[in-house]
């Protein structure tokens, strides 16, 4: 089976509410794809439709090339964590997973393997009712991994977790992608995906407003700038502005430059015999790139 999710021209309405308004995107193997947008943007709806929990009003959502409902062994094809609170509190972690494994024809040995992988082996016989939110998230992730699926989906997995839990989830997402799986991860905060996602699909009011590699998004962001220290501020400003850069004075002897590479700046200043100190590169964060991307989409920003 292909490790992919393919969403094409997907629409979903609930009565008069348009939750998803004609979106298309792909989630590819070996990558973490972040699915970002403010509350109500349509992320959970899209995930539910991909998992066959809701029928689309129009369009298609395929997992490994087929609609979810046609998958012969769903847990072996796609694992998902939508709501960590969905497990009955009276159940023991091990039994919960064993029941899932049995009902999907998966070997019992997988239960111990996934409990180990998510770090719950030592509490496997405890009742889920006594689990912290972080432990419940881990149990939900264990369930998603049970069938060793090539495609994984997680809806806001870091919500409410402590910093240690967040770091753990990030590492896990990266390692799942490194194993060649397609990992689809939603969040309403772009900064949660910094360092985790390779690709982002940004949703606003049921529409895709960006579908891009994270590196490309960051490299074109206005937050990318180079700081130049010089005693000849106005001469340097003139030379760099004439070369097409946007230059702003930060301090008596510090300028920030957008739109020119460090090497080019150094070459120009040397050529014009202008003195300069160290050139400091500031790389935009994913959050800055996101703000930059959405600042023109007034409606979207207001909603966010
Ligand atoms: N079952 C439903 N019945 C009616 N409206 C719904 C239903 N599910 C979602 N909606 C509406 O569809 C829109 C998109 O909701 P959705 O939950 O998909 O957004 P989201 O991006 O996942 O937001 P959140 O981060 O809050 O979960 C919202 O306006 C929501 O109120």
Automatic annotation (TrEMBL):
Gene3D superfamilies: P-loop containing nucleotide triphosphate hydrolases. The keyword Methyltransferase does not apply. InterPro entries: AAA+_ATPase, ABC_transporter-like_ATP-bd, ABC_transporter-like_CS, P-loop_NTPase. Pfam families: ABC_tran (PF00005). Residues 5-230 form the ABC transporter domain. Keywords: ATP-binding, Nucleotide-binding, Transport. One of its GO terms (molecular function) is ATP hydrolysis activity. Belongs to the ABC transporter superfamily. This is ABC transporter ATP-binding protein.
């Amino acid at each position: 089976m292909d490790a992919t999710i393919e969403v094409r021209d997907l629409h979903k309405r609930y009565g008069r509410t348009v939750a998803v308004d004609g979106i298309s995107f792909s989630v590819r193997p070996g990558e973490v794809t972040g699915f970002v947008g403010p509350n109500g943007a349509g992320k959970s709806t899209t995930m539910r439709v991909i998992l066959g929990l809701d029928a689309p009003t129009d369009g298609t959502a395929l997992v490994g090339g087929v609609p979810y409902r046609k998958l012969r062994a769903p847990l072996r094809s796609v694992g998902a964590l939508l709501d960590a609170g969905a497990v009955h509190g009276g159940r023991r972690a091990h039994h919960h997973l064993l029941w899932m494994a049995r009902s999907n024809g998966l070997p019992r040995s997988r239960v111990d393997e996934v409990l180990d992988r998510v770090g719950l082996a030592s509490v496997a016989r405890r009742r889920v009712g006594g689990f912290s939110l972080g432990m419940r998230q881990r149990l939900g992730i264990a369930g998603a991994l049970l069938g060793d699926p090539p495609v994984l989906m997680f809806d806001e997995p870091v919500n409410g977790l402590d910093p240690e839990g967040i770091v753990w989830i990030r590492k896990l997402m990266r390692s799942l992608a490194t194993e060649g799986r397609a990992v689809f991860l939603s969040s309403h905060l772009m900064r949660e995906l910094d360092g985790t996602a390779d690709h982002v699909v940004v949703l606003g009011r049921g529409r895709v407003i960006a579908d891009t590699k994270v590196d490309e998004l960051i490299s074109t962001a206005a937050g990318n700038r180079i700081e130049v220290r010089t005693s000849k501020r106005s001469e340097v400003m003139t030379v760099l502005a004439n070369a097409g850069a946007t230059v702003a004075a930060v301090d008596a002897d510090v300028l920030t430059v957008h739109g020119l590479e460090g090497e080019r700046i150094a070459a120009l200043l040397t050529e014009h015999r202008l003195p300069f100190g160290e050139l400091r590169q500031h790389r935009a964060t994913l959050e800055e790139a996101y703000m930059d991307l959405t600042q023109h989409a007034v409606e979207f920003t207001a909603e966010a």
